[in-house]
């Protein structure tokens, strides 16, 4: 259903620079259980709520692998909204995060292992050379080589 909605959005908006990759994002290539919830925006690889309505098996891969497969050489901006899988997604983009001009916005409002994800994400990004700002449980990050904070 999510892929069908994305395809409709692409068509309605006349987008020509979008490629759909029917995989989830994770720290390694695998097949994982994808938990389904009544509101599709809550579907997740991390069962963070007891109200799931079932699950399906979904192939996953790293951002690094997917970008290589698509022959994407440069990334400027990454928006991450992965419903509790933020840490696993970041582990799978170490090569991508080495770029000097990559900016990130990461929705990090889940509790993982008893800790809120917006407190877990900044140390990983700082270790990779990013400056970080957290606002309303969204983590914004940019390389320290930039002269100023992105808008």
List keywords for this structure.
23% helix; four-stranded mixed beta sheet; three-stranded mixed beta sheet; 151 residues; alpha/beta
Structure description:
With 151 residues, the chain is of the alpha/beta class. The chain is 23% helix and 28% strand. The protein contains four helices and nine strands, in the order H-E-E-E-H-E-H-E-E-E-H-E-E. The protein has helices spanning 2-12, 63-69, 86-91, 117-127, and strands at residues 24-25, 30-36, 54-61, 77-80, 103-107, 111-112, 115-116, 130-135, 138-143. A four-stranded mixed beta sheet has the order 4-5-9-8, covered by helices on one side. It has a three-stranded mixed beta sheet with strand order 1-3-2. Strand 4 (77-80), helix 3 and strand 5 (103-107) form a beta-alpha-beta unit. The longest helix is centred in the N-terminal third of the chain and has 11 residues, at 2-12. The termini are far apart. The mean pLDDT is 88.
User: In one word, what is the shape?
Assistant: globular
How many helices does DSSP assign? 4
Helix content: 10-25%
Q: N- to C-terminal separation?
A: 33 Å
Strand order of the largest sheet: 4-5-9-8
Oligomer: single chain
Rg over CA atoms, rounded to whole Å, is 16 Å
The H-and-E topology, N to C, reads as HEEEHEHEEEHEE
SSE layout and pairing:
Elements: H1 2-12, E1 24-25, E2 30-36, E3 54-61, H2 63-69, E4 77-80, H3 86-91, E5 103-107, E6 111-112, E7 115-116, H4 117-127, E8 130-135, E9 138-143
């Amino acid at each position: 259903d999510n892929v069908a909605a994305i395809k409709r959005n692409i068509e309605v908006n006349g987008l020509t620079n979008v490629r759909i990759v029917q995989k989830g994002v994770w720290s390694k290539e695998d097949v994982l259980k994808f938990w389904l919830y009544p509101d599709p925006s809550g579907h997740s690889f991390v069962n963070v709520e007891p109200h799931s309505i079932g699950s399906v098996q979904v192939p996953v891969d790293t951002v690094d692998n997917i970008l290589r497969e698509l022959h994407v050489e440069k990334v400027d901006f990454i928006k991450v909204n992965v419903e509790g899988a933020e840490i696993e997604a970041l582990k799978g983009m170490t090569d991508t995060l080495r770029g000097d001009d990559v900016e990130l916005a990461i929705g990090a409002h889940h509790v993982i292992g008893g800790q809120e994800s917006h407190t877990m994400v900044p140390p990983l990004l700082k270790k990779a050379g990013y400056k970080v700002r957290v606002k309303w449980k969204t983590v914004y990050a940019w390389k320290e080589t930039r002269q100023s904070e992105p808008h």
